[in-house]
Amino acid sequence: MATRSFPERIDPFKFAELGKLIDGNFATAYFDRLCQELHSDKGEIACKVNGLKHPETGLKMLQLEVKGEVELVCHGCTEPFMHRMEHEAILYPCYNEEQMKQMPDDGEPVLADENGLDIKSAVEDELILSLPLIPLYGECEELAAYEIGELPELTDEEAAKENPFAALKDLKL
Questions:
Q1: pTM of the predicted model, to two decimals?
Q2: Using one digit for the tens of pLDDT, what is the confidence trace for 64-123?
Q3: Which helix or strand (DSSP H or E) is residue 51 part of?
């Protein structure tokens, strides 16, 4: 079933019980909150939401897959670039926060109310969470300034020598 917009709300438990599927290509502009994080609304995102039951526990779940390209701004050179997105997630619908605490660790709990689940918002949340924290492109990816690593450990003597405020401990007021 291909679609250009999500249903306003779904009953996630019934959706999973019946093994329903939402599968479609969406213009990036369709996701308003996502666009606030992007350089432009260029691009298209393929979304698939599959209703399933957990094979071991029988819990209802929504399997989400998103793929597409969005335009970001490189934080190294401030030039726009097209970023390839591929993200998968398992969403466990819950009616309250107590149920959320009991969900398996292999997915994310999502809160549904008596009116169901706003599936567009749930998908959009996952899209936003899948964006890189520091978008980098091309040569900027190679810059040492953006490498992640451990800070060097200093000995007590080195820390005392290098601390510009170490002399203040000897001051008497």
A1: 0.76
A2: 999 999 999 998 889 999 999 999 999 999 988 898 888 888 889 999 988 999 999 999
A3: strand 44-53
Kindly report the backbone phi and psi dihedral angles of residue 59, in degrees, each rounded to the nearest multiple of 5, phi listed first. Answer: -65, 145
Q: What are phi and psi of 27, to 5 degrees?
A: -65, 140
For residue 62, give the 3-state DSSP assignment.
strand
Above 70 in pLDDT, residue 162?
no
Which residue reads 């810059």 in tokens? 143
Partners of residue 168 on adjacent β-strands: none
Cα dihedral sign for 77, 81, 87, 93?
positive
d(CA 62, CA 15): 8
- What's the token pair of residue 76? 């190294």
**Rounded Cα distance, 62 and 6, in Å:** 14
